Structure formats: structure tokens, C-alpha cells
Amino acid sequence: MKESRPSYFSMKPRVLSGIQPTGSLHIGNYLGALKNWVRMQYDYECVFCIVDLHAITLYQDPKELKQKIEQTAAIFLAAGIDPKVSSVVVQSTVKEHAELCWLLTCTTPIGWLERMTQFKDKSSKQESISDGLLQYPVLMAADILLYKANAVPVGEDQMQHLELTRDIAQRFNAMYGETFVMPETKLPTVGARVMGLDDPTKKMSKSETNPGHAISLLDEPSVIRKKIMRATTDSNPQVDLETAGPGVLNLLSIHQAFTGWTDEQVKQHFQGLRYGDLKKTVAEAVVAGLEPIQQRYLQIMAEPGYLQGVLREAAERVRPFAAETVRLVKDRMGIYTD
Ligand code: AQP
Q1: Is 95 among the residues known to form the active site?
Q2: CB of 137 closer than 6 A to ligand 1?
Q3: 39, 65, 118, 304: which one has the fewest Cβ atoms less than 10 Å from its Cβ?
């Protein structure tokens, strides 16, 4: 069966990436993923997903989840995703994500999933572990392979899942014949791993509950300043780039990712600077970087029906391509297709 190419998808290489609507998006999500997406969207055919089916691998309050899905979509647009160029899709509204996930679940050895660091980490914090949490990376593979994505921009924490996606694709191709494209991981040059402000040995994460841990993209300037001024550094009084510990390096890397400064500019400005001044400079860079996003977010949320229209149109646009991939996969596996 030949791959048909519905008119929406051009000949440009394709990109797929997603974020879970599990809480307030933070600067790690922005610098590790969103900022990169905005930069890539004119060179690639992009599908950016709000991965609500991934979110429910851990319990989510149903009423809050609905709100967070829309908030997350609004943040994508506010950060600069252009809905005329990219498709912003709520994962569950294109049923083929779940359908392909099941088909791939049947070809993925369980041992591959049990080895995933994120599964071990998240399951160790749960009393009862859902099967969905184990299948999380298969669903991620389905998201990517559904659109035959060539590139996947993610933060460092998702690299292992991307390797697994390639393994799943390769295994399927070996079992049933060439079907899937091998996706490439695209890491940002700076900001690939933003660490918690309270504990710079842990990655910044939405699900951490300590209020000093993460900077939300919607935090007010005064809150951002307070959180950064309280960030953990080390016992030195001033910046020494040769010996700087993880807390200082994290702040420098956040600053560099927001400003785009070169390593030389960082050295010139920060070497020998007192920690108090370092923190003030970082806070102002973050406040300035987030201000336009916050303003656009408020405008988007104030426009009745706009967001829902964007999400509906994008789902309609990508569905024919997704359906075609699932039809091809089913056909390869010998599943009945009407
Ligand atoms: N700290 C981080 N630094 C750089 N990139 C990060 N990403 C997440 N945290 C950082 C990137 O953001 C994208 C979306 O992540 P996600 O929400 O789908 O899942 P996650 O990686 O599990 O993010 P969180 O914040 O840690 O959420 P929870 O706490 O809900 O699990 C991915 O591209 C990721 O690399």
C-alpha cells in the first residue's frame, strides 16, 4: 500500500513534540522544548501536542485537567507557536494516537519498558502503578511515528524515550517491512536540562510541590524575583566559572538561554560577580523574557472561542495523515481494514 500524502503536509521534514498538561508549565519546559519549537516551526511541518493521554498515566483531577489542557494550548500560542503554520493538537482528539499505541504495545518487549529511568523514578513514588505508566513511552513512540516525524525537539530527560522510539520503529520495520521513519532527537544548545532552584541536582519538574522549585511561565515578576533570590547556590561569595557548583551553573545557563549571550559574554559579565548581583541579573532576564508571553497569554484567554477554534482546526487538519498511517500499519500487520 502506497503512502498517500494528504495535501496539508508539504514536502518539508516533519516535527512532532508534546507537553503534558499536568501543572503549570515552567521555564524548563520553555527552554528545553517550547523555545526550540518556535524556532523550528518555519523550517519543518510541525505538530505540537498537548499530551493529555500521557497526563492520565498518573491520577489527574478531571475538572482541573480540562482547564490545564486549554491553558497549555494557550501557552504554546503565547510562546510564539503560529497556528497558521503549526498544528496545535490535543492528543486525545485524534484517536489514532491511542490506536497506534495499542498496535505498537503488541510489538514492544515489556523488558524494554521496565528499564526506562522515568518509569522507575515515577513508579517508585506511587503506591499503585497503572499499566499506562509503563506504556507511557509506547504512547510517545505512537505520537511520533503516527506523523512519520523526522525530528523531535525535547529536553535531555526525554532522550531515553526517543532511543526507545527508534528501537520500537526498527523492530516493527524488521517484523513487518519498512513502515516507519527513524526520528532524530533535537536538543537545544542551552537549556536542555534546567534544574530545580531549590535543589540543582534535580531537574525542574511540574510535579514538584515545593513553591521555590520551579518558575512557572505565568509567575508574576515579583514572584520570579523572589524565587531566584532564594535559589540554592553554594558557600562561595562570588562567581568563579572554574569552580562553580550546580546551583550557580544552573542560574548562568538559565540566563544564557533567555538572553542568547555567548560564552565569552557570560565570562566577561559574571566572573567575580557577587551572588546577589548574579541573581538580580538572572531574575531581570527571566522577567523580561516571560513578559511578552504572559501578555499574549492573557489576550488569548480573553478571546471567547478562539483557542477552541485553533484546536479543532488543527485536529481536522492532521487526522487524514494519522488515519493513513494507522491504516498502513494495520495492513502490514494483517489486521482487517474496511
Ligand atoms: N527541567 C527541564 N529542563 C529542560 N527541559 C525540560 N522538559 C521538562 N522538564 C525540563 C521538557 O519539556 C517537555 C515536556 O515535558 P512533559 O511535561 O511532557 O514531561 P516531563 O519531561 O515529565 O516534564 P515535567 O515538568 O517534569 O512534568 P511532570 O512533573 O508532570 O513529569 C519535554 O520535551 C521535556 O524534555
Answers
A1: no
A2: no
A3: 304
The pLDDT of residue 1 is above 50: no
State which ligand 1 atom lies nearest to the alpha carbon of 25.
25
19 lines ligand 1 (CB under 6 A): yes
SS3 of residue 244 by DSSP: coil
As a whole number, mean pLDDT of residues 124-150 equals 95
Instruction: For helices 131-146 and 306-333, give the axis angle rounded to 10 degrees.
Output: 90
Under 8 Å between Cβ of 97 and 53 = yes
Nearest CA to ligand 1 atom 22: 205
Query: Measured between alpha carbons, how far is 185 from 259 in angstroms, rounded to an integer?
Result: 24
What single letter denotes the amino acid at residue 164? Answer: L
Residue 188 makes CB contacts below 8 A (sequence gap 6+) with: 31, 32, 35, 36, 153, 155, 257
So what's the pLDDT on residue 291?
Answer: 98
Name the catalytic one among 148, 206, 227, 279. 206
Of the candidates 203, 226, 280, 330, the residue annotated as catalytic is: 203
Whether residue 2 is predicted with pLDDT greater than 50 in this model: the reply is no
Residue 80 CA to ligand 1 centre (angstroms)? 19
Indicate if 202 belongs to the active site.
Answer: no
Task: Identify the residue whose C-alpha is closest to ligand 1 atom 18.
Answer: 19
pLDDT above 90: residue 3:
no
Domains contained in the chain, CATH given: 14-187+304-333 (3.40.50.620), 221-299 (1.10.240.10)
H runs (alpha helix) in the chain: 27-29, 35-40, 52-55, 62-78, 96-105, 110-114, 117-124, 131-146, 159-176, 221-229, 246-259, 263-270, 275-302, 306-333
Q: Whose CA is nearest to atom 35 of ligand 1?
A: 155
The answer to whether the CB of 28 is under 6 A from ligand 1 is yes
**What's this model's pTM, rounded to 2 decimal places?**
0.92
Mean pLDDT for the chain? 94
For a pLDDT cut of 70, what percent of the chain falls above it?
97
Whose CA is closest to atom 15 on ligand 1?
19
